[in-house]
Fold this sequence. Notes:
Elements: E1 2-7, E2 19-21, E3 24-27, E4 33-37, E5 49-52, E6 61-71, E7 75-84, H1 103-106, E8 110-119, H2 123-127, E9 130-136, E10 140-146, E11 159-166, E12 169-174, E13 177-183, E14 197-203, E15 207-217
Antiparallel strand pairs: 1-15, 2-5, 3-4, 4-15, 5-14, 6-11, 6-15, 7-8, 7-14, 8-9, 9-10, 11-12, 12-13
Protein name: Domain of uncharacterized function (DUF1961)
Pfam families: DUF1961
InterPro entries: ConA-like_dom_sf (IPR013320), DUF1961 (IPR015305)
Amino acid sequence: MKLIYENSLCGLDVLSDWIKEGNIAIEESSDGVILSNLDDEKLGDYAHWTIWIPDIFPKNVQIEWDFKPLREPGLCMVFFAAKGRNGESIFSSKLAKRSGYYPEYHSGDIDAYHISYFRHKYESERRFRTCNLRKSYGFHFVTQGADPLPPIEDVRGVYHLKVVKMEQNISFFIDDLKILEWYDDGLEFGAALTDGYIGFRQMAPMKAQYSHLKIWDLDSER
């Protein structure tokens, strides 16, 4: 495996070239960048946002970052293997403009896998916490695992998150604990996704700190 992208996420300018969809509040921190929303939560599902790394990544990747929830309720999500439904860039002018509204991502112009890993937005999610993996286009729920992340008052330090996508196998870990695993057979929910873009999403009024992002090409040697 070869490290192909690294970002400490320390400083206000570390996201300057990332593609922002929705209104994001960015705060500088010596321990990483702190992200929340600028829009009033009264906008409901239109107050949320998504942010993308502007590079396309290979089909077999490992994505790692440190995460610390700072304010809830809210929800955090990672997208990967994202491309336009005809294989084009998700930033193509041919696609409808996105603003952070969730249906634009699961039932719009793009295909992607996405894992929601801090699901503390709604009462039902806080009562029984899980991490969910979905495949889009189509909002297909494919698997889930128990979420070990605690409520804000019990957070101690940062949590190390890792997504591994190797061929049609997808795994997700928190602090090296395997949370979920799924094999995409390429049949039930359409062809397995390959290369694509990586992005992060938050639901208002969530506030969280991100740091030490690393992305590895699992096909390449060091």
